[in-house]
Structure formats: C-alpha cells, structure tokens
Amino acid sequence: MICVNHLTKKYGSHTAIEDLSFSIEEGKIYGLLGPNGAGKSTTMNIITGCLAASAGTVTVDGIDHFEDSRAAKRLIGYLPEMPPLYGDLTPYEYLCFVARAKGLKGEALEADVREIMDKTRITEMSGRLIRNLSKGYRQRVGIAQAMLGNPKYIILDEPTVGLDPLQIIEIRTLIRELSGSHTVILSSHILAEVQEVCDQLLIIADGKIAAAGTIEQIIDREGGDGTLSVIAKDEGDLSEVFDGIQGIERVQPTDADEGLLGFTVFFRRGSDIREAVYRSFVSHGGVLLDLHANVPTLESVFLHLTERSEEISPEEPVSPAADAKDDGDENQEDGGYTPQFR
Amino acid sequence: MRAIYQKELKTYFSSMTGYVFIGVLLLLSGIMCLWVNLLGGLSNFEYTLSMVSYIFLLIVPVLTMSVVADERRNKTDQLLYSLPLGTGRIILGKYFALVTVFACAVGVMCFYPLILSLYGTVNFLSAYAALLGFFLLGCALLAFGLFISSLTESPVIAAVISFFSLLFLYLLGSFASMIPAGASASFICYVILAALLCLIVYRLTRNGFFAGALYVIAAGVLCVLYFLRPALFEGSFPALMNWLCVYDRYTDFANGVFDLSAAVYYFSVTGIFVCFSMQSLEARRWNEGRSGL
C-alpha cells in the first residue's frame, strides 16, 4: 500500500499541493484526475521519489522515501508525462540500461527485457533508434521501462496525451492488461479515459483532494440531486401539479416563452419521477410539451468540484487516514472516504 | 553505477563526442610531439604535454557540456531520479565514463615516449610521471566541467561557462600578480569572493534567506578580522589565487618532477567537484519546477 500523508510541495511562495493525504490499495487501477496545473504531476513525482516534498511523508509498503529511497523506488515503475527516452539508443539497449539500473543481471535481465518487449508489442522495433520511432511506440517504450523489474506499483503520468485515437485505444488496453499483475496509478484530465480504465478515482483541484472513491461513490456523494426540466402549456390548474409526487425535493420555476410554463424539478437520485409527473399533468388538465431528466455525471461532478475547490477550507484538509478512523468499517469496505467541505 | 557508466560510454562512442575529444587530443599531442621532440630534437615528452595541456580549455567543455545538462533538457533526469540508484551513483557513473574516454586518449599517448626512444634517450620515469600529472590535471578539470554541466539545462551555456571558467583558472596566476599585496585590496577581494560563493549557494539551495544570511555572516567575520588583525590579509588573496591555480601545479610535472602534493591537490579538486555535482543533482530534486539557467 502506498500511503501519502499530509504532503505539501511549495515552490517559493507558490503552493503546488497542500496537505494531500490518501492511500493506494493493491490490485486496482487508480485515476488521478484534475485540471491542468492541479498538482497531479507534482504528486506523482513525489510518490516516485523524483521530487522532494516540502512537508509530509510517502511510504511504499511501509518504506519511507526519506529513510530508504532506493528500497521504495524498487517497488515503483514510473512513466513521466514526457517519456524519458534516449534518442540515440535502440529500445532494446534502452531497456537493458534501465533493467541494469534496476538491479537485473544476466539471463534474468535478458528474459525480462524480451518479455516486456513482447507485452508492450515493441519487439519488431527493438533494433531501431528511439528518435526514429513514432510517438505511440515511444510511449510504449516508456511504459515498458516502467514495467521492467516487475514493480508492484506502476505510475503513469498522462500516458495517452498527444496520441492518435488508435494509439490511445492500444495504450488503454495495455494499461488494463497491467492491472492483473500490478497496481496502476494514472493521471489524466480526460474524463472518458479514467471512466473507462480506472477502478478508483482521486480528484485533485488546486493542490488538494476534492473527492476520492469509485466513480459511483463520487457521483453519489458529490453529484447532488437529479433535475427534471419541464415545459408545459399555460393551461389548466397547475398550481398543485407537483404536490404529492414521491421523491421531489423542490420545484423552481424557470423562464419560458409566452403561453408556456417552465419548471426545474429537483428530485432525489434513485427515484424516477417522470411517469408520476406526466400523470399528474394529465390529471390536472395540463399539456406537457417537454420532459427531460438530468442525472449527475462524472463530468458534472468534476466541473462542480474543480470550480468550487477554492471554497475548500484549508483548516479542514481531506485526510483518508483521519476519515478511516472516523468512519470505521464503512470506509474499510469501500476503500473510500468522505471529503470534508465547509 | 555500472549501468550509468555503460550507458554513458555507449553514448560517447555512438555519437561524435567521444571520437572528437580523443581525436583532437591525439592530433594536437601528435603535432606537438612532432614539433617539439622530433623536429626540435628534444627527448623530453614532458615539454610536449605542457603545451598540450592548454587544449583542455576547449575539449573539456566539449566533452562535459551535455553530461548532466542534456538529461535535464530532455527530461531524462526524471528517469534517473526514479531509478533505485541515488545521485551519488549517477554522478560517479557519469564521471568514470568521462575519465574512461580521456584515459583512452592518454593510453595512446603512453606510446609516444616509446616511439621517441627509437630516436634517442628518453627518461621514461619523468615522461610517464608527467603523463600521470597530465591525466590527473585532466581528471580534475573534467570534474569541474561535470559540475558546471550540473548547474544548467543548456549544454551551450554549460560549455561557455566551462570555457571561461577554465580560461580564468589559466590566467589566475597572472591575475594574482596584478592584485596589490596590501591588506585592504585582499579584504575587498575576499568580500567579493564571499558574494560569489553565496550566489552559488543560492543557486544550489534556492534559499535566498540562507544565502543572504551566509553572506552577512561571512562579510561580518571578514570585517572583524580586518579591523582586529589586518596583517592577516596582507598578500593573502594573491597567495590564495596562486594556490587555486590548477595549471601552475602542473609545472613541476612538466619539469620532470613528480610532485606528490600536486597529485593530492588534483585528487582533492576532483573529489570536491564530484561531490558538488552530486549535491547539485540532489538539490534539483528539491527545487525542480523553478526556472534554471
């Protein structure tokens, strides 16, 4: 398990991440989601030991980076945002270099390099200079170096950025294949990608954790009510048309054209009130012209969280460790926690 | 360390850098050997090496400019940081690869006294002692170039800084004779030197308060010493400059004397700049994301 506790990184007066706390459980694909500049890469760089934190600790399977960085790094494979490749080496030479640096020798080195090249499908390009490879193949070589030495955790920083749609599909397939034998953490600002690939999400905004958990948990917690947009003719007695319908939280009139009435109906998620609304309009002599339900999506939650991130109280940082203690078994089961907002 | 060493060596010999370094060094030493020893009729290979040593001004920046700066420019330093190596092993691997390329050239130059012996009497001991001194001088300057390369992400800037720094070191002896021997001149020079050193400290730590406080303390100590014991400063700065002049130490080797203190001096300079390079690389882990040179 990777435990990140109260991590802060400051560049002079600028705070890149502030009091970040979360934990990474084994065998899952985690998505670090956030807008550009939110602190995703900084967080990953600190977890991998590329960057030193201003405050806080990172432990990898109980090993503190500060105390035994080399042992911690042996457990992690890392692909930075820009694949760290040497253009004047071939993929085979490059991977042999990384494997040697990770402590592999002799036949084990050769076997591991061959196996990883097969898995990442770069064997046919193994003799060409890296600078002559396409971006997709370079990305594969980058992922291959992260996989060398069979690290327990593989951390990928925006692995599909700049790739064409076909290459994106190939890389996502490769990441899913990795999840069988590794714990994967990937960062992205592409919602569709994390929805498709990840089991768990960590949404970062302005250097703080805005939400964490599975996609469903985050939508449940942060999505708020569903809404129903209703447009009807201004006919009949509609003053009590929404009364008595189960699940409705509140109704808000909206602007509508002349002769029409508009409503936004807020309802509890999980309940489908469309049929009841339709029947109520009919029974009250109303003419329903448009009925459209909007349920919260990851996109709406993400926009909501990243827009309001400035409202997060600095005095109440999100701490899964603290939340785990507070929430007890509930959070132990789902691996999530409830962020605290003011 | 071995992985870095092998990779660096491969890089030098898969590009032109290693061949250019060795080729230029051998070409110049060959021309000098022909001119001084064969055409000049002198059997002292030490004199040839003494003249060849000036080529370090050009070839050391060429060989060292990319060694760390390129890693940062191409973002491959992130790979090095994420590997279970540590900055010490990274720098040592790179430094030994530099020394190996230089040793290849020096290895070929070892045959020169043997060739000269075909045409006359050669004092092999003094010739090979001079070659050892030449090698140690080169190693010290390569460590210096490595350190300069670790300060910037631009190989061109690293090469320019290395060149002018080495030129300054060459001329240090001449500059020393220009500085008045009086206490006040030395005091002013020390205050300026302290400012430069604190600037380097700031560059490494990015901590303005720490560097500023260090300078205030250093300047305060200098002021106190100057007013209490001005005699301490008389002629001391020119003496320090002469002591720092790495090329002057080679004079004894060139005269056929194996100067053990000079050898220790070169080892010390090498060790100091290799350590500085390690610290510089480590410092980047703390300050990455800020603008560099």
Describe this structure in words.
The complex is a heterodimer of chains A (about 350) and B (about 290). Chain A has helices at about 40-45, 70-75, 90-100, 105-120, 135-145, 165-180, 190-195, 215-220, 275-285, 300-310, 320-325, 330-335; strands spanning about 1-10, 15-25, 30-35, 55-60, 65, 75-80, 155, 185-190, 200-205, 210-215, 225-235, 250-255, 260-265, 290-295. Chain A has about 350 residues and is an alpha/beta fold. In chain A, the strands form three sheets. In chain A, strands 6-7-8-3-9-10 form a six-stranded mixed β-sheet, with helices on both faces. Chain A has a four-stranded antiparallel β-sheet with strand order 2-1-4-5. A four-stranded antiparallel β-sheet of chain A has the order 12-13-11-14, covered by helices on one side. In chain A, about 40% of the residues are buried. The interface of A and B includes residues 42, 49, 69, 85 and 97 of A.
Q: Looking across the biggest beta sheet of chain A, what order are the strands in? A: 6-7-8-3-9-10
Strand % of chain A is 25-35%
Which outline of chain B best applies?
Answer: flat
How would a crystallographer describe the biggest sheet of chain B?
none
| SSE-based structural type of chain B | mainly alpha
Counting DSSP E segments of at least 2 residues, the number of strands of chain A comes to 14
Distance between the termini of chain A: 30 Å
User: Biggest interface and its residues per chain?
Assistant: A-B, 33 and 28 residues
Overall pLDDT confidence of chain A: 80
How does the helix and strand content of chain A classify structurally? alpha/beta
Unreliable stretches of chain B: none
Topology of helices and strands:
The complex is a heterodimer of chains A (342) and B (293).
Chain A: E1 2-11, E2 14-24, E3 29-33, H1 40-47, E4 55-60, E5 63-64, H2 69-74, E6 76-79, H3 91-101, H4 106-119, H5 135-147, E7 153-157, H6 165-178, E8 183-188, H7 191-197, E9 200-205, E10 208-213, H8 215-222, E11 226-233, E12 248-254, E13 260-267, H9 274-283, E14 288-294, H10 298-308, H11 320-327, H12 329-334
Chain B: H1 2-14, H2 17-39, H3 45-52, H4 56-64, H5 69-73, H6 77-82, H7 87-109, H8 111-117, H9 124-151, H10 155-178, H11 183-205, H12 208-228, H13 236-244, H14 250-254, H15 260-287
Helix pairs in contact in B: 1-7, 2-3, 2-4, 2-7, 3-9, 4-9, 4-10, 7-9, 7-15, 9-10, 9-15, 10-13, 11-12
